[in-house]
Task: inverse folding
């Protein structure tokens, strides 16, 4: 945990945005795997962590704006518990660790909220994403568990998103540490990308590294020789010489901040000329996109720049045709680059995604496109100093998508479908780094993980 | 997955126990970590796995007893999904894999159930353990999500427990494979128990091994130099020479069967005489308990035999006093051995615990004791051929419990509190293996993981 002053400051800042009301942050509970007592690794809710820091189940944090008071509600351990669990801190001591003055048993929370509601106090809460929470909050507020989520507070969402979007130095340090773990993970993957090993051998090794240096992986790693399948969580294939291995994996720091890195590695350690051609396009797109990053730039324009470079590269190879700008305007590049360039990062690897992408990545000045590909862009709005997000262009040859487009002769003025067929079994390439917007430009966070063709090849042979 | 004949046979056997009604098995859904799209490793519900085999989210399996029909309800992937996820099997094909004739979209399940209910058909379902499921089932049946769990079918619970309790050869083979993974994990832990390393180094390594050879760990491993704290999931301590490291860890096979092994290792590879004295008592208790196992024996008697051997051993060391049989009758041993000797194992590491321990471990002939210690015994009833369970006696010196008892001079005729104080910082020792009840006796499953003092010491030095 950070120093308690940090949490006090964060809550003060949030409080300033409200004239009245009660801000309720429900911490997460244990999540059962296959029966109540066998639970997944506990993960605290990220907004709770941001304002109340404690990585412990069954807590609720409250900011009472009207009375200018803060509360921690939680479970007070009994002597019986302590016999089984060892010495446990008192609730008041936990509250003190995050600078909260008042604490009480969670069993009194319902009565506490009821009294407030009866006085006409508005209870602000964030969107819920676990069924347990729908039940819990509905029970606390005597509301309908099926409908309560619709009552999440837009005002609180907007205030939290505004605050969490700008990363403080202690947060950036955590992301850098998560990136140091990612460095170890990805350079290990590069050394392990040998024919005969399986995707799962690497998957298991990366999980082990992430657990040994931090809290574990920040999301299911994608370790796949079928990188063209974007949502691919299967990792049972054997690595074959000549295939490209997409490794999209990050770690969580001890303070629950994420990293999210992708590298694409030639199985056997040597890119073919054809692979190199595509790889260099993706890398050029990424470097140029990163170079544009500074406060005031709209991220949708960064995305479109990357798309144009991809289109230009594919035109040079004869896979696309026509003018790159027009091709991108028409959305033709999306056959090969169908996803967004990046997303916010922080306490969540897709930071604050649970609060709503429309608040995190868009605003009144930037509306979501409806075009295939561009519609998937998670972050489009104007960049501010302190934003941290991913930059992850890619080129994929997705047989199912190619067939779909080809059958309709979609955008045939920009796509050379005959040439595309030659790449049908190519797979996919993605290169991803994590970027901080600084006052005047950007900083690529973390130690440089090999990404030049020659560096990736050299990393394969490193001892 | 097993051959579809196995699932057909299991469902046939279950069906025979019902004259009428509809048996509904809800499969698990994805479980969000910190926002809806970032999910934990998917784990299918164990009873769903047992009867319908498919390790895929968002399914429901139905056995319609009256019409003698079976159904699989699930999500039919769209072309859009396939673009992102790669080729996906059709629902009908999934159903076929487990020998189910009928399949339909999950969106039609509510209507299907409503029609049945309107005809007076009783819907039998098992207890729910995830909030999402309370909401889902309540929505399907137009019921109250807060109360629906009380309507779980006792008849279905009893039928499922009876069937799942007796393991078939293909299940035992899976448990043996999970134990082979455990062998790799525990011998690795023995080699790693070196001063200067941390508990977490071992924790991470064991997780990596479990993922590389199977589905990962079957429960949070306990890797602790404070083994006296029974529910200890902290693993941040550094290993110190002279301490005992309790490693309680198991793996899940590819077919989702568990192993659950405990070994206690002297940090630095050499037991002290004092450690050896206690260790040998635990080991003797375990061996004698295992030797008693055969059909017809009540497991509570196996537990009490282990307790008596522990009491006798502690009397010999002067820690307890009086007659071992009387001490155990009075419950005095429970200061040092406060938990049960074992629990059922299978698709859940505490097999079927979510269905209710009163059904799994107790029956009309065997009621739960109220005595401290014995009350925690999960499996007490008469053993049958085909049962698989753990045998895990232990001796612990729990400072908080010692203080509690000593203050009350509890059972002071059996406990030499002055002598106990000498062991205050001893820690704990537990030794656990997994046992199958055979037709005439028992079989300790899996490869022998070092447990004799000399073997554990030798394993520390193995390359």
Result:
């Amino acid at each position: 945990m950070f120093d308690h002053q940090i949490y006090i400051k964060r809550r003060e800042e949030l409080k300033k945005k409200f004239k009245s009301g009660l801000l309720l942050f429900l911490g997460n509970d244990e999540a059962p795997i296959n029966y109540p007592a066998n639970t997944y690794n506990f993960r605290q809710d990220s907004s709770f962590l941001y304002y109340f820091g404690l990585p412990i189940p069954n807590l609720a944090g409250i900011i009472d704006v009207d009375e200018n008071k803060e509360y921690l509600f939680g479970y007070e351990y009994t002597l019986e518990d302590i016999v089984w669990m060892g010495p446990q801190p008192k609730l008041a001591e936990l509250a003190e660790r995050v600078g909260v003055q008042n604490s009480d048993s969670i069993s009194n929370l319902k009565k506490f909220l009821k009294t407030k509601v009866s006085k006409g106090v508005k209870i602000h809460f964030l969107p819920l994403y676990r069924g347990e929470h729908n039940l819990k909050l509905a029970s606390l507020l005597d509301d309908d568990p099926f409908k309560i989520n619709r009552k999440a507070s837009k005002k609180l969402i907007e205030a939290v998103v505004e605050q969490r979007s700008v990363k403080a130095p202690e947060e950036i340090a955590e992301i850098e540490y998560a990136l140091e773990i990612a460095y170890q993970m990805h350079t290990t993957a590069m050394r392990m990308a040998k024919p005969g090993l399986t995707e799962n051998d690497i998957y298991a090794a990366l999980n082990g590294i992430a657990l040994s240096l931090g809290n574990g992986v920040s999301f299911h790693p994608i370790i796949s020789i079928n990188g063209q399948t974007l949502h691919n969580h299967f990792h049972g294939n054997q690595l074959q010489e000549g295939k490209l291995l997409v490794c999209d994996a990050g770690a969580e720091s001890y303070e629950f901040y994420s990293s999210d890195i992708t590298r694409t590695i030639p199985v056997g350690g040597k890119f073919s000329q054809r692979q190199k051609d595509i790889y260099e396009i993706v890398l050029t797109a990424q470097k140029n996109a990163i170079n544009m990053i500074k406060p005031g730039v709209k991220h949708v324009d960064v995305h479109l720049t990357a798309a144009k470079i991809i289109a230009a590269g594919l035109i040079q190879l004869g896979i696309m045709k026509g003018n790159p700008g027009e091709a991108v305007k028409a959305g033709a590049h999306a056959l090969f680059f169908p996803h967004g360039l990046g997303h916010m990062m922080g306490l969540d690897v897709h930071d604050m995604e649970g609060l709503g992408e429309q608040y995190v990545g868009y605003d009144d000045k930037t509306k979501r496109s409806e075009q295939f590909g561009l519609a998937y862009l998670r972050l489009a709005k104007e960049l501010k100093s302190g934003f941290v997000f991913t930059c992850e262009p890619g080129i994929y040859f997705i047989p199912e998508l190619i067939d779909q487009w080809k059958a309709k002769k979609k955008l045939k003025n920009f796509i050379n479908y005959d040439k595309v067929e030659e790449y049908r079994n190519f797979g996919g390439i993605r290169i991803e780094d994590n970027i901080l917007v600084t006052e005047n430009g950007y900083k690529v966070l973390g130690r440089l993980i090999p990404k030049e063709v020659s560096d990736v090849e050299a990393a394969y042979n490193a001892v």
User: Anything to note?
Assistant: Chain A has two domains: 4-165, 169-461. The radius of gyration of chain A is 24 Å. Residues 169-461 of chain A form a domain with the Creatine Amidinohydrolase fold (CATH 3.90.230.10).
